[in-house]
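FIELD: query
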Amino acid sequence: MNSRSLEFEQQLSVSRETLAKLERYVGLIHLWSPRINLISRSTLPDVWSRHVLDSAQLLSLVREEVGHWLDIGSGGGFPGLVVGILSQERDRLQKLTLIESDQRKCAFLSTVLRETRVKGEVICARSEDTSPMAADVVSARALAPLETLLGHASRHLAPDGTALFLKGARYEQELTKALDSWSFRCETHPSKTDANAVILSISEIERA
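FIELD: result
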């Protein structure tokens, strides 16, 4: 167990079993990423802080139990796989779905689910080509501008669902542009891992 994983265990009070699953996941990231570019090479040494902890903070923004969590453009599994691994310990998710259009990344996601024994479904397709999911939560990280993400969320959210989008320093510009096309309710939460980033919690999405 390395210092990064120990830090994670201390911050989130997870069990050793959950920590072992996360360590296996991070190990697979290091193994696969040089071949299929799961995350940028510059962030590989900081997977725990830059990606795992960043993704984990989403769970503090939802109720204790979630019926269906949908992660779109999952890529390397952030935030969806982290949410799935952390939620299994306390049985917080009834269903986890990861949507990714790249077949190689879909293979990676399926491998992580299998090796960590986390229940989840990987759909290898574009979000807009997938049947509506009526999910309770839709999440995305580093996928597309907010205006585009709202289209995906509108398609796949249940009427009372919530979209959680991790955004960087330019989020205010994205919000302003999105309001030209969409009506929605938005709460902004500061990121716990990046002083310049936020998490947007969005609901009641409608075309303007």
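FIELD: remark
Helices lie at 3-12, 16-36, 47-56, 80-89, 103-116, 146-156, 171-178.
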